[in-house]
Design a protein that fits this description.
Mean pLDDT: 84
Structural class: alpha+beta
Low-confidence stretches: 94-110
Strand content: 25-35%
CATH superfamily of the largest domain: START domain
CATH class of the largest domain: Alpha Beta
CATH architecture of the largest domain: 2-Layer Sandwich
Number of strands: 9
C-alpha cells in the first residue's frame, strides 16, 4: 500500500466515524471533559451501555479516542491528531490558524490535567527515535526548535532557536529506553505567562505494529486550567513528524513559521 493510500484509508475511517451523530456526541462529551469512564459517558447518552461501547470502539479504531487504564478504571481521551491531519491536508492553506481546535480540551475535574495524543507513522522504531532526539530533525517539525541534550537519564534538555532570544524551553530526562520510551520534564520559557506555569512532564512511547509505529505522547502534571500554549501545539507537531518521516516533506503550519 502506498503512503497516499494509507493516508486516504485513515481519512475514510475518520469521516465514517464522524458521520454518526451519536459518535459526534461522544466526542463532544470528551471535548467538554477529557478522561471519562464508560459509566460517565453512558449516563450522558440515551442508550444502553453496550451501545456506548460499540460507538467508542469505532472511535478508537478511527484513532479519535485513546484509552488509558487508571487502576480499575478505563479512561477515554479525545485524540485530535487525525482531525488535525485532515485539516492540514485540505483546510490550513485556505484559512487562518484555528485556535488549537480539538487540542484545547476542557480541563479535567482534577487538580492536574493529562493530555494524550496518538498517531500511527509508517517508519521503524529506530528512525522514529532518531527523529525525536536528533536536534536538527526535531527542528523540522517542532516549530523550528532544536531539542539539545546528550540523551542520558538525568541530563538536561534545552529547546533553542537561532532567531529567538534565549532558551524557549528546558527540562531534564527522567527515563530513557531507546527506541521505546522517553520521559522528560518540561518548563516553557518563551513567555512570562507560560513560564509561570512551572514544570510539567512529557512521555513518548513507541510501539512497532507491522511496518509502522504507534507513537503515544502523554503530557501530564499540568496545572488544572493551565495555559493552553503548553499543550495546544501537539497536533501540529505530530502531524509534521508523520509527514516528514513518511514523505520527506515539511508542513508549513502556523507554528513552524513562528520564527521564520
Amino acid at each position: 500500500m502506498t503512503i497516499w493510500s494509507r493516508i486516504f484509508s485513515v481519512v475514510d475511517e475518520v469521516f465514517r466515524a464522524l458521520a454518526d451523530p451519536t459518535r459526534r456526541s461522544l466526542l463532544d462529551e470528551l471535548f467538554r471533559e477529557d478522561g471519562q469512564t464508560l459509566s460517565a459517558l453512558e449516563e450522558r447518552l440515551p442508550m444502553t451501555r453496550f451501545g456506548v461501547m460499540k460507538h467508542l470502539k469505532l472511535l478508537e479504531e478511527a484513532g479519535l479516542v485513546v484509552t488509558r487504564r487508571r487502576g480499575r478504571e478505563k479512561l477515554h481521551y479525545l485524540n485530535p491528531v487525525p482531525i488535525r491531519l485532515v485539516h492540514d491536508r485540505w483546510v490550513s492553506k485556505y484559512s487562518e490558524p484555528w485556535a488549537a481546535g480539538l487540542s484545547e480540551l476542557k480541563d479535567r475535574l482534577e487538580t492536574t490535567m493529562e493530555k494524550v495524543y496518538e498517531i500511527y507513522i509508517r517508519t521503524t522504531p529506530e528512525r522514529l527515535w532518531e527523529a525525536i532526539t536528533d536536534a536538527d530533525i526535531r527542528a523540522k517539525y517542532n516549530f523550528g526548535m532544536r531539542a539539545v541534550s546528550d540523551w542520558t537519564t538525568g541530563s538536561r534538555i534545552e529547546m533553542k532557536h537561532e532567531k529567538a532570544d534565549g532558551l524557549l524551553g528546558e527540562g531534564h530526562i527522567l527515563e530513557m529506553d531507546p527506541p521505546r520510551r522517553l520521559v522528560h520534564t518540561m518548563v516553557a520559557l518563551w513567555g512570562e505567562d507560560v513560564k509561570a506555569e512551572g514544570e510539567s512532564r512529557v512521555t513518548w512511547e513507541i510501539q512497532p505494529i507491522g511496518d509502522s509505529c504507534r507513537l503515544t505522547v502523554t503530557h501530564d502534571q499540568l496545572r488544572d486550567g493551565a495555559n493552553d500554549q503548553l499543550y495546544g501545539g501537539w497536533p501540529m507537531i505530530l502531524s509534521g513528524l508523520k509527514t516528514w518521516l513518511e514523505t520527506g516533506e515539511l508542513l508549513t503550519t502556523p507554528g513552524s513559521l513562528m520564527y521564520s
